[in-house]
Design brief:
The chain is α/β, with parallel strands linked by helices.
Length: 632
């Protein structure tokens, strides 16, 4: 009989406190950035903080993955190696990496995960990464279910897939616009987010197709309806984006996917949770309540329309009604919703820009505003992008995660033994010696004494455990002092917690193939992101003959693809040559102020290339990469 397959819910941790809350709200693993070398600027944590997070996570047999996923300059390799050892000693369960130069270093025996920035789109790449020692690989967000199935059929490593959060429009690791324009490299954690800027789109004849829209800005990823299909395709780790998001987002979205995955697991015995304990929540998870740009399931089911957030990259929220009256500092709104002091509302003005306002006081359908927008008019549709009551609920202690334990209380000639056996089969015991407690006497009221004994032994409040069964093996009914039972129970709980930590199943590093695996390509352009000599040596060892330098070296590349994306503006504006036969895939131009980017269309691969060159005077900061946390 095949053992049940674990399904891992993987949540973001901006810091240790956020990570602990993610675990409490149902995450089986969290990913976090260390003090350097992660691919999200401004969200790093110290090694000491990561150790605290590991201690908490491991008590639930949940895991902590640390992002070490920037590309590294030669001068940074030793610091990265030392950091890897520090993270291993702190208890980290895996490192998420992009730079293959790290595999040429003396790394600790820690599990390795291939970052999404390694651009895993094909079975051959996935197989290669498995062969060189990666245990888990983060698939490209653009993959369809069919493409995931094809990869799963060719490899036995765990497949990780982003199921929620912001979408990079480019294939991860294949975007250089930020570095070309500002010197801030996305591959080194400092993306300037040029994709969220407004652009005008002009065709090859100079005609304007679209003006001042956010044409490279995607809606947010939401795979809620595809979870079972993803599982059946081979995904085992379900990743939530959000390294820089607030705590309300982490709680809400983690709880949402925990609820969905639990429902699948409960009805499909071939799957089980990847960590211990079950989470319950004091709120109803609602993904639409926290930051999003609208939702899409992107390319999971193949190319589709309406994946872009062209109007605005801001969080607009949900429609709540329309303005029916406007007074001095107040409005009346036609709505079926209930409003609260502190709610945030917004609307689109005549120019299409999002304008926000805050509710000071609610009087039924009359809302008194902190400041009245000048261009608000009757009939305007309003959205709510901050539900104050929902946010307040998430500010409180909003979840509990408990590990099921069976309790056995047994009498022997010299002692009473309390044994706790948890849902993972781990046991711990504490003993109450008869000689040490002369107040244990035969019960005068056996029924009352037994009831009190059962009540005290099952009092596990304030711990991470809950009693699911109690067995008493007593020769007669005894009266026990409550203080003795409380002390015995505390000792048993502490012993079980210690035993669980000691037996945390820290994953082992996957062994690389005995013979060096051959890389799927014999040549690497700048798209290979080879930034140091160790990475060059790695690829040479694995059969690559020609290796170009990374774009970040500053070497002159001329006009090149600064972004490669599956998002296609020809398709977005019904100008796809595959659908309209007389059209040709002629170049187009994106314009933002004085900035111009050429769009070329590879219809065979169904990809759009954003072409440009490096600005004069752009240089890269080659100091140690900033305190960051990776997108994975």
């Amino acid at each position: 009989m095949t053992a049940p397959r674990p399904l891992e819910l993987l949540a973001p941790a901006k810091n240790a406190a956020f990570g602990c809350e993610a675990i409490k709200h149902g995450a089986d693993a969290v990913y976090i950035g260390g003090p350097a070398f992660g691919a999200r600027y401004g969200a790093g944590s110290s090694v000491a903080e990561i150790q605290q997070l590991c201690d908490y996570a491991h008590s639930y047999h949940a895991k902590v993955f640390v992002a070490l996923n920037t590309i590294l300059h030669d001068s940074e390799l030793e610091a990265a190696r030392q950091l890897a050892w520090q993270l291993y000693d702190a208890g980290a369960d895996a490192l998420i990496i992009q730079d293959m130069g790290l595999l040429e270093l003396d790394l600790p025996p820690i599990q390795l995960h291939a970052s999404t920035q390694t651009d895993i789109r094909h079975p051959e790449k996935a197989r290669f990464l498995a062969d060189v020692g990666f245990s888990q690989i983060v698939l490209a967000r653009e993959l369809s279910l069919a493409e995931i199935r094809a990869i799963a059929a060719r490899t036995d490593v765990a497949l990780e897939y982003f199921v929620h959060g912001a979408l990079c429009v480019a294939f991860s690791g294949q975007c250089y616009i930020s570095h070309a324009h500002t010197g801030r490299s996305a591959n080194r954690g400092e993306c300037s987010q040029a994709c969220r800027l407004p652009y005008s789109l002009v065709d090859d004849k100079g005609r304007t197709i679209s003006e001042n829209q956010h044409l490279l800005s995607m809606k947010d990823n939401n795979q809620s309806d595809n979870l079972l299909a993803l599982i059946e395709a081979g995904v085992t780790s379900f990743k939530i984006e959000g390294r820089l998001k607030d705590l309300a987002y982490v709680k809400n979205i983690t709880a949402h996917y925990r609820t969905l995955l639990d429902a699948i697991i409960d009805s499909h015995p071939q799957y089980h949770r990847a960590a211990s304990g079950r989470s319950t929540f004091s709120f109803t998870p609602q993904p639409e309540k926290t930051f999003n740009r609208g939702y899409t399931d992107y390319f999971a089911g193949g190319r589709q329309d309406d994946i872009g957030a062209f109007d605005s990259p801001a969080f607009v929220g949900t429609v709540v009604g329309e303005v029916t009256e406007i007074g001095a500092g107040w409005i009346t709104i036609r709505s079926s919703e209930t409003f609260h002091n502190g709610d945030g509302l917004c609307f689109h003005d005549a120019a299409g820009e999002v304008q926000g306002m805050r509710v000071n006081r609610v009087d039924g359908q009359r809302l008194h505003l902190a400041q009245m927008p000048a261009d608000l008019s009757l009939g305007t549709t309003l959205f709510r992008n901050r539900d104050q009551a929902f946010e307040r609920a998430l500010e409180k202690d909003s979840a509990q995660r408990l590990i099921a334990v069976q309790i056995d209380f047994t009498e022997t000639p010299s002692a009473f033994t309390l044994t706790l056996r948890d849902e993972d089969g781990i046991c711990a015991s504490a003993h109450l010696n008869r000689d040490a407690c002369p107040d244990i006497v035969g019960a005068q009221n056996p029924a009352a004494a037994r009831s009190k004994l059962e009540e005290q032994l099952q009092k596990l409040g304030g711990t991470s455990f809950c009693a699911t069964g109690l067995t008493l093996n007593l020769k007669e009914d005894w009266f026990f002092p409550v203080s003795s039972l409380n002390a015995l129970r505390r000792q048993a709980v502490e012993a079980l917690q210690a035993e669980r930590l000691a037996r945390h199943p820290r994953p082992l590093r996957r062994a690389a193939s005995a013979e060096p695996a051959i890389y799927p390509q014999q040549e690497l352009t700048y798209l290979g992101n080879v930034f140091n000599a160790k990475a060059r040596a790695f690829y040479e060892k694995h059969g690559v003959r020609l290796i170009d330098e990374a774009y970040e070296t500053g070497a002159e590349k001329g006009l090149v693809s600064l972004m490669i994306t599956k998002h296609c503006l020809r398709h977005s504006f019904n100008l796809c040559p595959k659908e309209v036969k007389y059209l040709k895939p002629d170049p187009m131009t994106l314009i933002n102020g004085k900035e111009k980017l050429i769009l070329k269309f590879d219809c065979q691969a169904c990809e759009m290339h954003v072409i440009g060159r490096m600005k004069k005077g752009v240089t890269l900061n080659l100091g140690i990469a900033p305190s960051t946390a990776g997108c994975g």
